Amino acid sequence: MISRRTFVTKKDDILSFDAGNDTDKLIELHNRVIMNTYARVPGIVLSHGKNAAVFDLKGTEYLDMGAGIAVNALGHNDAGLVKTIAEQSAKLIHTSNLYYNAPAIRLAQQLIGNSALDKVFFANTGTEANEGALKFARKHGLQSSPDKYEIVAFTHGFSGRSMGALSVTHKSKYREIYGPLVPGIKFATYNDIESMRAAIGPNTCGVIVEPVQGEGGLEAATPEFMQALAEQCKKNNALLIVDEVQCGLGRTGELWAHERLGVKPDIMTLAKPLAGGMAIGAILVRDHVAGCINPGDHGTTFGGSPLVTQAGLYVFQKIVQPAFLEEVRAKGRHLKARLQAIADSDAGRSIKEIRTVGGLFVGIEFDHAVKDLVNFAVAAPNHVFFISAGDNTLRLCPPLTISTKDLDRACDVIEAYLKKYNQQSKKQ
């Protein structure tokens, strides 16, 4: 008889590797056991965080101007969120969606009560939320015609990395190695009304659009474009899907990024900041969409768990407060003014554009790549984490609770780098 473990290899060299809290050894172990899908910041293993700061195992403090890619809206280690998670963990963590749970119902109540949508489906990520939204659009369209399955997306848009979400993500470097992707996808030019109208027709079941493009350099949709888009969707009985995974939930200083645009979406997707760092996604839909979805049409094992939705309820009830949002807007004005002052100075002559619709979501486009700026910022004595949005754009999306003092610190580092860059350019 063949042993059950005949084909299972126990790797003693891996299991016996004791990295402890040694940074170099942990990174060595990481490289041996974790897939190489991210170009991580070298030489740093993070240990803990507080407010807008994170600390590595050596105790070095870093200002986090990326907030876990626009996730940690309340900063790191918010005391109330930690307490909420601990208390809910002691009660009930997971049940599956075969049963009702109170935290999910209460979070859904708040999301629906504070939006123009009617029903919620909880997922685990933004990618999952967008994937589900595409499925709902297809189901809705196929009720009208078997040919009504086309989906329109936009240039420079990013919706995720699973096959459906990837199919409506524009950048070729993400797409080309995984083809063929989902058929029936068209791309129109973002903010181009004529291009959009040409792409949407009788066979279009849905259109997915970001009010502010996160990965796309923080380009913002204009009200004229979005209103024309909503009109074209209505004309063709196509669902308007607004992707607020990154730009929603207070990031722009408004609860929803589409509020300034004068449109009412059929579907809205959320994720990143909703549970303050815990994995969550949400699809909000209007009744005419919810009405065509039946039990078994879509599902999730972990989505809407008591633990993550209780965390989400705590975070949402903080963000939704008018005083909180006004503070985000005020900090956004302060940040924009500081950056504009740099751009107007001799140091900022390589800044091409500062993009923001308000709040703490800012893109700074340069006439050169930002990789060296990011590396300069993280190194001593600066110790600031920045992230990019494409090769030439710096993306600022710090915790919404960040202080103006920390915003000034980040701006000082940008200015210091630009002065150094200009000096080096003169020598060349």
Give the count of helical stretches.
Answer: 15
Q: What overall geometry do the principal axes of the alpha carbons give?
A: globular
- Let me know the CATH homologous superfamily of the largest domain: Type I PLP-dependent aspartate aminotransferase-like (Major domain)
Q: State the end-to-end distance.
A: 73 Å
Strand arrangement within the widest β-sheet reads: 4-10-9-8-7-5-6
CATH topology of the largest domain: Aspartate Aminotransferase, domain 2
Integer count of domains: 2
What structural category characterises the helix and strand content? alpha/beta
Family: Belongs to the class-III pyridoxal-phosphate-dependent aminotransferase family.
GO cellular component, one term: mitochondrial matrix
InterPro entries: AcOrn/SuccOrn_fam (IPR004636), Aminotrans_3 (IPR005814), Aminotrans_3_PPA_site (IPR049704), Class-III_PLP-dep_AT (IPR050103), PyrdxlP-dep_Trfase (IPR015424), PyrdxlP-dep_Trfase_major (IPR015421), PyrdxlP-dep_Trfase_small (IPR015422)
Enzyme class: transferase
Describe the protein.
By secondary structure, the protein is α/β, with parallel strands linked by helices. The protein folds into two domains: 19-68 and 323-426, Aspartate Aminotransferase, domain 1 (Alpha-Beta Complex); 79-320, Aspartate Aminotransferase, domain 2 (3-Layer(aba) Sandwich), CATH 3.40.640. Helices cover 38% and strands 15% of the residues. It has 15 helices and 15 strands. It has helices at 12-15, 23-33, 67-70, 79-89, 102-113, 126-142, 163-167, 172-175, 193-199, 223-235, 287-290, 306-319, 322-344, 371-378, 404-427, and strands at residues 46-50, 53-56, 61-64, 119-123, 150-154, 185-188, 204-209, 239-243, 267-270, 281-285, 351-355, 362-366, 384-385, 387-388, 393-396. The strands form three sheets. Strands 4-10-9-8-7-5-6 form a seven-stranded mixed β-sheet, sandwiched between helices. Strand 11 and strand 12 form a beta hairpin. Helix 5 packs parallel to helix 12. The longest helix is centred in the last third of the chain and has 24 residues, at 404-427. It is globular. The model has no long low-confidence stretch (mean pLDDT 96).
